[in-house]
Specification:
By secondary structure, this protein is α/β, with parallel strands linked by helices. It has four helices and eight strands; from the N terminus they run βββααβαβαβββ. The chain has helices at 50-66, 89-99, 128-137, 158-166; strands spanning 19-22, 32-37, 42-47, 103-108, 141-147, 174-179, 184-185, 188-189. The strands form three sheets. The chain has a three-stranded antiparallel sheet, with helices on one face. Keywords: Lipid metabolism, Repeat. This is PH domain-containing protein.
Amino acid sequence: MHRDTDQLAFPMLVDHGFTVLSNHHNTAMTNSEIQIRNLQETLTIKCENRHDYEQWMESLNLLQEKAFCFENKNDTRFHSFAQIRYNQLGLSMEKAILLAKEEIFITDWWLSPEIMLIRPNDDETMRLDNLLGKKADDGVRIYVMISKELSFVSSRNSSHTKQALINKSKTGNIKVIRHPHHNRINNTLL
């Protein structure tokens, strides 16, 4: 993401193919490069000085140590990148949202904004839309991409999800994309 324009390049997913490579061992190089790879992308970070390089490497190494997906890569159900963590999804999501400082990325095919993240709980602040609205109003940029349903096939009502989330932010920091846009050309649905 470009800090000045808020233009989004792409999110770098931490999946089974996530690796961090460095050319820092080559002392002849003046600028150290760090290459981050996942199953879809390769990203090269060019560090201008040793301090930047060490900061990046420390953060990336910490990410690799803490990420569940690096353990037992082939033992996950359906070869998913993430381990099954029973009874922890809502709690993990709540913690991640509350810890966000700059931006939050969410993608889902059927997202219910009114879902309670920690159950059972009567505290309305634990609802997904309320948590996201609070973080957006605190200055965190939130990007949500949801699947746009075919109205004659499914009634997921992604339009409701989009409006419910956008309306939770007084600052306009919640952006929602419904994808794909379905077109009909010559009676063929594309």
